[in-house]
Write a structure and sequence with these properties.
Length: 191
């Protein structure tokens, strides 16, 4: 059964001629690396300078060498996106979690209900904190960091986890507000 084509955003999606040179380069690199341009790159590029600023920070947190592994950052992304019911991010980062973890079952379970996935103590501590910070940020206290410490995360890793949680809460809201549709390619990735 075929998927009905619908716009990838509630707003106008710019053409390549409508975006700054930096965005054009990113689109070109994406096409080269993935074989497609992620719809989030196309939809958010309507405001090119804002998109480029978001991308620099997002790329630094999620795609560069950091204190957490790629699989751990993607786990956080999928937990937060699942809780927020952000279709775009749950699907796209679920694909990345499948790829980095090598475990499609775990990745699919995390996207729906992370408590049903077989997670290590370290992963579970990050997922629990991601849920708390996503659902009840006003209730967070210093003691809420202890389970991550007990699971072996150091302060650099905890700070990075907090920043990734914050980034995905913001990105989920933008993606959901604009009705962003995930690329079809994500559904088959790393299966």
């Amino acid at each position: 059964m075929g998927q009905q084509q619908r716009p990838i955003s509630f707003l106008r999606v710019p053409d390549v001629d409508d975006v700054p040179e930096g965005v054009q380069r990113l689109w070109s690199k994406s096409k080269e690396a993935f074989g497609f341009i992620p719809n989030v790159f196309r939809a958010q590029a309507l405001n090119g300078a804002q998109f480029e600023a978001w991308w620099k920070y997002f790329n630094l947190l999620v795609n560069k060498e950091g204190h957490l592994s790629n699989a751990e950052r993607e786990l956080i992304a999928v937990v937060v996106s699942g809780i927020n019911q952000c279709t775009y991010c749950a699907v796209s980062h679920g694909a990345a979690l499948r790829e980095y973890s090598g475990d499609p079952v775990m990745a699919d379970l995390v996207a729906v209900n992370w408590r049903q996935a077989e997670l290590s103590d370290r992963q579970r501590a990050m997922a629990e904190y991601a849920e708390l910070l996503t659902t009840a940020p006003g209730s967070v206290e210093a003691a809420d960091l202890e389970p991550m410490r007990e699971a072996g995360l150091d302060e650099h890793e905890i700070l990075e986890a907090v920043q990734v949680i914050g980034m995905f809460n913001m990105t989920n809201r933008v993606s959901s507000a604009l009705g962003m549709v995930p690329n079809h390619e994500y559904h088959a990735q790393a299966r």
